[in-house]
Amino acid sequence: MYQFNYHRPASIEAATALFRDAEDAMYLAGGQTLIPTLKQRLAAPTDVIDLGGIEELTGINVSSELVSVGAFTRHAAVADSAEVRRTLPVLSALASLIGDAQVRNRGTLGGSVANSDPAADYPAAVIALGATVHTSSRRIAADDYFQDLFETALQPGEILTRIDFPVPTRAAYRKFPNPASRYATVGVLVADFSGDIRVGVTGAGPCAFRATALEDVLKAALSVDAVDTVEVPDAGFNSDLHASAEYRAHLVRVMAKRAVADLLTA
């Protein structure tokens, strides 16, 4: 790990000012990606700005139509929230599948979504639920947020502050986890908004995306069999020692069918 200056500001304004004045700063959330990256000397920031001291970034607010989660809220808090389980159970279920207990008690919603790891779980929920990403300066629609491998619409110095998740009529998430890391080799979230279907996929490509072909057939006939009528091309999909692009394309359909089955029996 290289030497750096450590800061723990108490406000968003102070954090953005520190970032602006530093030569090469990085924000620290739960540290599940950044700390290993620093330890392996894959990054050498001049300044690390810890967002853990900003109280307004933590918390969950629930209404009948919206679940709003602060960026610094831990995965475990989302998984264990009785209000989230009652109002948006798919989100608490998804959070409970992230990593292990240690990861869930350190990792944060904002850190996961800002990092945009191609195999992270939360991005599937952001896409499928049509969430709104709030930052220190603006709002970003889910469909405009994820752009490429570890690349989002966030600008340098911009802080993700909270995410608003609309509450669907019903929804379900299924993933094929890597047995060691529990990351999603492929994960699919299907959300039904009174007949308007959204499908978010993670793990398959460089970043989370909407499966519009699946959405179209499920809007016409919300059934497990309808998924079999969709061809999922593997062009541009991830291919590594864990799974080939072809296998990931197959998993998209398998996880979609399981998610639809769960949704129909919920």
Walkthrough of the structure:
The chain has 2 domains: 5-53, Uridine Diphospho-n-acetylenolpyruvylglucosamine Reductase, domain 2; 58-265, Uridine Diphospho-n-acetylenolpyruvylglucosamine Reductase, domain 3 (2-Layer Sandwich). The relative contact order is 0.12. The longest helix has 21 residues, at 245-265. The chain has 12 helices and 14 strands. By secondary structure, it is of the alpha+beta class. The protein has helices at residues 12-21, 34-39, 75-80, 82-87, 89-96, 101-106, 109-115, 122-128, 142-145, 212-220, 224-227, 245-265; strands at 5-7, 25-28, 47-50, 60-62, 66-70, 132-135, 139-141, 146-148, 151-152, 160-166, 170-177, 184-193, 196-202, 209-210. The strands form 4 sheets. It has a 5-stranded antiparallel sheet with strand order 4-5-10-6-7. It has a 4-stranded antiparallel sheet with strand order 11-12-13-14, with helices on both faces. It has a 3-stranded parallel sheet with strand order 1-3-2, with helices on one face. The mean pLDDT is 97.
**Spans with pLDDT under 50 lasting ≥5 residues?**
none
The counted number of beta strands is 14
Rg over C-alpha atoms, rounded to the nearest angstrom = 18 Å
Strand order of the largest sheet: 4-5-10-6-7
Outline the biggest β-sheet. Answer: 5 strands, antiparallel
Task: Tell me, rounded to a whole number, the average pLDDT.
Answer: 97
Q: What order do the SSEs take from the amino end to the carboxyl end, as H and E?
A: EHEHEEEHHHHHHEEHEEEEEEEHHH
The number of distinct structural domains comes to 2
Instruction: Quote the distance from N terminus to C terminus.
Output: 48 Å
Shape: globular
Note the total helix count.
12
The CATH architecture classification of the largest domain is 2-Layer Sandwich
CATH class of the largest domain reads Alpha Beta
